[in-house]
Amino acid sequence: MKITRQFHEFLNTINNVSKNLKSILGTLLMLALIVTGCSKDHNDDGDGDILIRPTAEEFNNLKEAALENLTQTFEIDADEGSVTLTSEKGVQIFISGTCLTLNGNDVTGAVNIEFVELFDKGSMLTANKPTMGIMPNGDRAMLISGGEFYVNATQDGVDLDINCGFQMQIPTDLTGGVDNDMTLWEGRIDQDGNLVWGEVDAAVAGQDAGVFGEGDFYYGFFQSFGWSNVDRFYSDPRPKTTIQVAVPEGYDNMNSSVYISYDGEDTGLAHLDTYDDQTGLFSEHYGLIPIGLECHIIFATEDGDNWKYAIKSVTIAENDVITFTEDETSIATEAQLTTIINGLP
To answer: What is the pLDDT of residues 229-248, one digit of tens each?
Structure first.
């Protein structure tokens, strides 16, 4: 009887250990699945080392957070008629609440106005709002900006329309004074989710849409909400070329971007808008970069809710290929990167 009792106790012990092991293994498996599901992209660098790269969603979230940080909000009463709003940088927005509609019906009561103003290339980069204009042949070339703007009106979270336009008075000292070659452009989202600019045709939009400079201000007239820009094309008589940029392993046009800051131009930012999956190269494939141009090429991506970036000083040569390595990257907050980009020559 003693031997039997000891044997049963031994079996019970083995059974309990087995159950505990199964529980532990099950917990470890669940943890592994959770970690895998929540982790960033992992890539093998070819030497067996695992590279952790941001997802497209994480990179987009970083840019959206930057845009949100740059968004100003106002509240107006549609019943009060015409109001004047003044932005942080001194832009004045003239808008009438009686012009606001929802599904064709007049709006009454409280209305929220969202406003974004971008005058510097650091903010243009973090918000992913470069100054690339669509040429008549469909190619894209860099614009010099007198200011990028976003205006929208909502009521209870629903977008409103405007049936009689609105105006803005924009201080020209923010962009170096009046430039009479500036015209009005509207923002368009391309198939990759990037903002590009198309010139507003007054014959189509109406004579009340446009911009002109006088004294210390640009005066803009807008017929609809959304993105708009006071711009002209960058002009350089030198021969042009195409350039390509190689970025560190594991990055592409979904989780990173490449920009060009032209030296001497504080209100323009070019964007390399094409990426070749086969070669892993970003490209300005229109052949519009001036040979001999002194500029800075900027690689930008996400790292733990911060920006990972690298900057190279370059004098453009024909068919240039610029290469970034992982060792050349640094980490910065949004504010730090904005300051760094604005500090470029």
So the answer is: 999 999 999 999 999 999 99
Under 8 Å between Cβ of 220 and 213: no
- The DSSP symbol for 320 reads -
CATH architecture of 56-233: Sandwich (2.60)
Rounded distance, CA 103 to CA 126, Å? 34
State the DSSP string of 230-297.
Answer: EEEE----S-EEEEEEE--TT--TTTEEEEEEETT-TT--EE--EEETTTTEEEEEEEEEETT-EEEE
**Residue 189: CB partners within 8 Å, gap ≥ 6?**
195, 196
Do the beta carbons of residue 296 and residue 263 sit within 8 Å?
Answer: yes
CA 283 to chain centre: 18
Contact between 152 and 225 (Cβ < 8 Å) = yes
Query: In degrees, to the nearest 5, what angle opens at C-alpha 260 toward C-alphas 258 and 262?
Result: 175
Q: What is the mean pLDDT of residues 164-187?
A: 96
Q: What is the distance between the alpha carbons of residues 147 and 200, in angstroms, rounded to a whole number?
A: 15
In the chain, what's the furthest Cα-to-Cα distance? 110
**Are 283 and 245 in contact, with CB atoms under 8 Å apart?**
yes
Per residue in 181-214, pLDDT (tens digit) is 999 999 998 877 889 999 998 766 555 789 999 9
Left, alpha or beta for 147 (phi > 0: left; psi -120 to 50: alpha)? left
Q: Sign (positive/negative) of CA torsion 225, 98, 96, 88?
A: negative
The CATH homologous superfamily to which domain 240-342 belongs is: Immunoglobulins (2.60.40.10)
What does the chain come to in residues? 345
pLDDT tens for residues 301-342? Answer: 999 999 999 999 999 999 999 999 999 999 999 999 999 999
Domain assignments of the chain as residue spans, ordered by start: 56-233, 240-342
10 Å CB burial of residue 150 (0-12, 13-18, 19+) is buried
State residue 325 phi and psi, 5-degree precision: -115, 160
Q: What are phi and psi of 342, to 5 degrees?
A: -70, -20
